[in-house]
Amino acid sequence: MRRRAPSEFMKKEHKRNSIVIRLAGDSGDGVQLMGSQFAASTALHGNDFSTFPDFPAEIRAPAGSTFGVSAYQMNLGGGPITTAGDAPQVLVAFNPAALKVSLPLLEPGGLILLNSDSFTTRNLVKAGYANDPRETGELDSYQLVATEISSLNLEAIKDFGLSKSDGGRCKNFWSLGLLLWMFDRDLQLIVDWIQRKFADQPVFRDANIAALHSGHAFGETAELSAAIPQFDIERTALAPGEYRGISGAEALSLGIAAAGELADRNILFCSYPITPASPLLHRLAQLGELGVGTFQAEDEIAAICAAIGASYGGMIGVTSSSGPGIALKTEAMGLAVNAELPLLIVNSQRGGPSTGLPTKTEQSDLYQAIYGRNGDTPVPVLAARSPGDCFYVAIEAVRIALRHMTPVILLTDGFLSNAAEPWLLPDMNTIEVIDSNPAPTVDTERESQALVFERNPETLGRPWVAPGMPGLMHRLGGLEKDIKSGHISYDAQNHQLMTNMRAAKVASVAKFIPPQSIELGETTGDLLVLGWGSTYGPIFQAVRRAQQEGLAVSFSHLRHLNPMPANLADLLQGFDRVLVPEMNMGQLSTLLRDKLGANPITYCKVSGQPLTINEVEQQIHMHVTSSTGGEA
Amino acid sequence: MSTELTAKDFTTSQEIRWCPGCGDYAILKTVTKALADAGAKRENTAFISGIGCSSRFPYYVDTYGFHTIHGRAPAVATGLKLVNPVLDVWVVTGDGDGLSIGGNHLLHTLRRNIGLKILLFNNEIYGLTKGQYSPTSRPGTRTPSSPRGSLDTQLSAGAFALGAGAHFFARAIDTDKKGLGSVLEAAQKHDGTSLVEIFQNCIVYNDNVFGAFTDKATAADAQLRLQHGEPMLFGADNEKGLSLNTKTLQLDVIDAKKHPENVMRHDAHNKILAQMLIELNLPVALGVIYENAAAPYEKTFYTEHSSHFTRTGKVADALRRTNTWTVT
After folding, report:
1. CATH match for B7-209 among 3.40.1210.10, 3.30.300.130, 3.40.50.970, 3.20.20.450
2. Smallest CA–CA separation between B271 and chain A, in Å?
3. Nearest CA in chain A to B107
4. How far apart are CA B118 and CA B110, in angstroms?
5. pTM of the model
């Protein structure tokens, strides 16, 4: 074992408010599993946290290649932790490629834990290193701990009779054991999990447990020589209550199921596999007992059409995809608008255009959601801000769909789907039930066709009438229909009335949504930072830091993008400047100009990576002109 | 008042907008009669269509009806059937809607064997868009989009269906009330996806395209009316029959009076025979060409799928199906 560069890490116990850890290795190294288990242990330990898995598009890229590096970043500490952190302070690198890719991100003076067994000439060449970075001095400004993780792991499990390659797969647990020691965690939680997960594979189960213990014991031994630092990270003062760790995809799936429970309707979720939306299908496929059915359709179009068929039949139809798939669903969305049927469409946004960056994150489908249909075809649009928020946004989206009898688009993104955080469990009894527009009473004096299109004057939602209901047979479809009789109509004046009705219906959603509020800072002033979607975390932290530096800056974050809250225009007018940071080329800014006549300052970033706190903070510094007059 | 419904009860007040003389009128009449004969309930019957002349059909049937978008009717109908399997769900489509823009959905619907009754109105032309060639047009068809004749090979609905793994395929002629009626009855009884190809005459853009076997004068010699288990005979006096030539693996037309013992009986469960019947040019095979029982998708979806769409669990419990901790 080698180590370098004595630094502050030499002190045995490092007290810190928070720390950012990045685990990186080959796709097959089990980095994501190791990360998610470390997150579970972090949650139980009482730290607030936020995680960000960053994996390649290839399932198993060639071993040792830089493009095949899979990483898991986690920020943990005393909260509120709202992002996975800008620069890691601890890097665990399983091979030279992982080091090469992650090093530019690492904070100067950070700790690097290397698997020195993987630093072979072959792997160094594959990673593009002409010389061994451990010898060239390029790691001198970091704390380097190089350990023979592969051999120590194999030694620990040699009695289990596993082949070298099978045994090698336990090294993520060996490394997790060491990490758990470094952060003073209880092993038992992970041991219990391994016992459940590998119940059917006793040899792997026992080998993984042995590897975990061995890594932990290695830390304890090393402690004697003070070679590896231990950290004492501040625990968080979360609000009292029952918590769990939750990813965006988990929260969204549970939110959809909860919407079904609240509406007392079953759910048919129809989708076609696509990255990064598929985890939602996988999660929902396990929620059968909550009245959720899943249908894997032959393509994106069939998926939304089957969901429309389900809504037509009286269940809550839901479909989900990512940008390219959403594009294919566009025509069918228009059908749902015209047929006045409820529908939830989830878009897990990814980098575009075209196939773009399937595993990377972006917010560039806002135009598509708001404007992207033929005809004057308005649709309500909402966006989730954090993994746990996906639960509530799903409920809200279904509530709107059923209240107004309209398709609703819910925007999330690749980052939110995979990111995780501790989450205060909701009390289902306190969430308002979801009402739907009841079927009308059969009236033999009147045509059922007209009864079915008799809209609620406040919401413009029509009665939800499904095949099987006697006396209410009717015809509907994509053709324009008469506003009263519901029969096909090509009448010029009627088309104007129907177009107005569809616009008024979506606009009426604003009457039911809460006014836009300020998250941080004063309600009027010099600079407002306005965000939407998954950029909540970095913007929140950046504004908080700027306020601590004494800058007069406020923060507001949009959930409802169409229609926007009724008071938003007034709220924006209370500030001299509005800064909108977005992971696109300025789409919300365009929307604010279009809908509110605002003139915001745009900060765009389209790199496939989440916004960092630092870059948002820099933007605040550039645009803020006054201070609050003292350190906050 | 009798509870028995007649064909008239299945007819809406809507003014029909097909061209005068269109084959669709005859189909509509036979379908509404078949519904009445089968004792169908209007509220439990739904007609789902795509886009095209045929897809106007739901407006004229007094049941539930959904005129969807081009090619996607089978997908919408699939969602409906999944959420309410007791419904009688009919899909009305055409050669362009079902075999061109919607070919993928038809393929997968047939493969799944979900309980939809699909009526494919084949007139070998695009009618509503004013007469372009369709995937079932014969090569060389002259249309506004193919002034020198179309280039594409003709698609056979039957070969497509069998290739996709269909469990029911039948054929009928639009104006043939009896033939179409009996095929509709069989299609409705089949548990799973039934595909019925209806040779439908487009009087404006492709008039008499099926004349070779629909003209009254030649019909007896040009149509083979299949009955499961019965000898495959045709001709005015049933004097012709089909025999399997074991050397060429083809169906030969033989003199049925001379060699009745060589006339093959129709076996609707035999897929190889179905393939040969579909490929016949003259006579044209009509009736139920292929039928094979298999569990319909919606049944397995409900019995084997974990959900059964019954809410037995609580979200509050599902939220806690992982490690939780309490902050005090």
Report:
1. 3.40.50.970
2. 25
3. A298
4. 10
5. 0.92
